[in-house]
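Troubleshooting: if your tokenizer reports a length mismatch, compare against these two reference records.
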Amino acid sequence: MTRLKTQAARDSLLRRVRRQRLKYITILPSLVTILNGICGFAAIAFASKGAAASVNHFSYLTLPYFAMAGYMVLLAMIADVLDGRLARMSKNTSSFGGQLDSLCDIVSFGVAPAFLMLKVLEYKLSGYAEQNLSFVNFLQRFIWLAAASYISCAAIRLARFNVENEEDESAHMSFIGLPTPAAAGVVVSLVIFHQETLLELSAGGNRAYVICENALLYALPLMVLGVAVLMVSRIRYPHILNQYIKGKKPFAHLIRALLFLALVIWSRQVALVLIFCGFAAGGFSKWFYYKIIHRRSDITLSAEPSVPMTIEKRDNSD
């Protein structure tokens, strides 16, 4: 009899869950979140067009298609920041908004950067296919492995964030693992720098620029694997907006912000590389220092034998 009552209660609960429908959503934050996903889709479209077009320039802005794809990912980052701010300002945060944000993030910061890296390198390797076919095939397989690893780690990172995330904004002072927008920023900043700066410099025939251009491009899959590992790691990264910009800060923060703006005005391509790569490397360097070097020095100091203190007695009999 008790078993029948338990089964009936369970069936009643399941029926209520099935009848539950989403009745209310916040329009403006949801629209901005969807804009994030649309920008990611546009980045994929630009990357596809850049790999197939004979003239690799976007006609209206005279920018390479691959660089345009990178800028679309950066625009998706702006939308990703705005949607959460709008929801918190209007006090309309919801589970629906969080799930929608993660779905758009996996497109903009997971699939789009990996696909962009894949197409840039395929476009580069197409010119060497006839010279060394076996080496090109090996590189293509490695590039596919790097892209698949990046997408997988981005999905795991977003799912873990949804599970461990806290609603309180004051708790968002740091992230566990490299955030997916920062990881995508590393990839697209290198692509933008390559397409807009190094290609123009290497076109002059300078051997040093040609070597740098090739080195950056072939190191890109390794960078993608590196940021993929950092995304699923337990390394703590600061929340830039909450830690360094929001609220009252020391005067030195204003000087740093002015230097940052000057760097962006001087060269946005160099600024993007320094910002995103510096952020990703900074968290890892800090973790490496405190976990490996600092701990090893502490172990060394604790292992040293203690020297007994001797007190010399002074004879005052004279």
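Reference record two:
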Amino acid sequence: MPRRLRLILLVLSGLVLTVVFVAVIALDVLLQPDRFTAMLQSQARAAGLELNLANPATPTLFPRPALDLRGITLSAQDANMPILLAARGRLALPWRTLFGGPTAITQLQIDAPRVDLDALEAWLTALPARPEGASPNIPRIDTGVSISRGSVVRGNQLLLDNVALETGNLVSGQTFPLRMSATTASGTPLLLVLSTTPRIQGNSLQLDNIALHLSQGSALALHLYGSAHWHVEADATANLSGTLDQASAGQYVVSLALTPADQNNPLLLALKLDGPNNHADLHLPPLALAHWWGQLGNGREAQLTLPPGSGHVEAAKIESGDISIEGFTLQAGDNVPAASSAAAPPKPAASKYP
């Protein structure tokens, strides 16, 4: 190779390296990873959580501006067990942020997160009660969320694996999509697809055009449509109806109606199900039911009691694992007929002795 050509190539290589070096420095200066890390940690701290990263956030430019997060740990403050562990995360940023625009995130991507339900429940239980009369917090998803290769555990017990989640932004008046897939500990695939149009007005959240599809492999598929409204914890209404397809039993007609609490009655869920040889008409208080369910795993304090609610269930056959029950009927509530009193014991036979 001629000496002049070698010099030209060396000069060009030096220029390319210089441009790359300057671009890397400029990218770090423009994106300012520390401000995004500080913003996330501040938001977590406001919710009683601590967010830590194994390494400082790393900026990238292609295919679009983003920050790579490594070794994510999310824990309740002063807790020993983390709520979430993730190998890697990524914050996708709008191009305007690169040129000095506001601090904004367009999508949050998390790879291989591990969520511990025990730690999550402990954090929720420790949250302070909302002051009486204070405005409720409307659920918000300001950015799209993408989760891949996730898992849900309770201590050392695996509940869900291969969790994948995709959501859009929760913006008033725009369709909000959500799709989640996973496999159970036994390998059964689960799929949840939700679409709705939220409308946020003041301190209330209205969900219109709800379309919910839930399936468990090829054995079961639930399809519900309707609307819902939420204002505070027990001030909620919902009306959903649809079908439940069970491969081994046929198709059922399902309806759900949620009525808000008042001075005399708690938040109440009315569930009706009609299908081949199976019928159910139940009225369940969701908050009390959730408390009852939580008490089941409360160790020494757990007591075997019937779940709260009223209504009746008629099932021709119930199968769970190796257990099979036929002709099952359950009636609960104030209208249950009282059990007949036991027959009086027979009088002792007269003795032949005085």
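Descriptive notes for reference record two:
- The longest helix spans residues 3-31.
- The longest strand covers residues 189-201.
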